[in-house]
Each structure stands twice: as structure tokens, then as C-alpha cells.
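Handoff note, outgoing to incoming analyst
You'll be picking up this chain. Sequence as last confirmed:
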Amino acid sequence: MLKNTILTLLLSLGISAFAQNDPTPNLWRTLADVSFTKILDQEYGYQVSYPVFSDEIQALDGKEVIVKGYIIPMEEDLGYFALSAFPYQNCFFCGNAGMETVMEVYPKKELDYTPKAVRIKGRLKLNKEDMLDHLMYILEDAEVVD
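Most recent structure output, in case you need it:
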């Protein structure tokens, strides 16, 4: 009985270690570790919420990451799309999640919409406070991975 328990434990540890081939496992969980501060924006003349990224998030700035999420359909072709940690009906734009659960994705080539989750690899860029008309997470040079 003890031998079977130990063998099962070793096998499960080996399988889970083998399955974790993403360079950034649980990326959405990491990206959730953000807080916000209100700053008076001189251009707009009112308080704007700016992200305060954790050290772990800042360490990912400019790095290649893999993220699994759902493509959010856009009304027009803007050269990018939004990717959500949640399916379309539960995404940030629909009111059930926060800004930390979506990112802009700039693909290397155009991707077709699918309602299924996709894994996308690209270079993560943090929008600290310089582009108010963009999301706070931006994935550049993105491509779908298997």
C-alpha cells in the first residue's frame, strides 16, 4: 500500500513537472497582482487610475510570455485584438472582471476568431501611464502556439 502511494506521488509529480513547459505558468494570476493609484491627468483634467505593478509583473516587462485566453471580437479591424482570461460573456468589458484580466494583442499575422481558448506567445509590454487609450497589458509580436 505504501509503495503504491509513493509510486503514485512520484508519477504525479513527474507528470506535472513535465506538463509545465510554459515559460510563464499562471500568467493571469501573476498579472492580477496590480493595484491602482489615482493621479490628476493634466491633459484630461480629472483623476485617472494608473496601475502600480508588482515587482514580479515588472520583471516580465519586455519578456516573452505565453498566455492562454479568449479572443474578444472587435467591431472593426484595428490591427490588434483583446485577449481575456475569461470567455466573452464574463470578460472585463462585460462587467464581471477587472482590467487586469484583459490585454491588447498585436499579432504577427491576422488571427481568425474562435470562441475556444487559445495559447498565445508574445513579448509583454506594460502600459505604465503613457497611453491612456490602451489597455495596461500589451502583447506584441504575438502568435498562436499549440
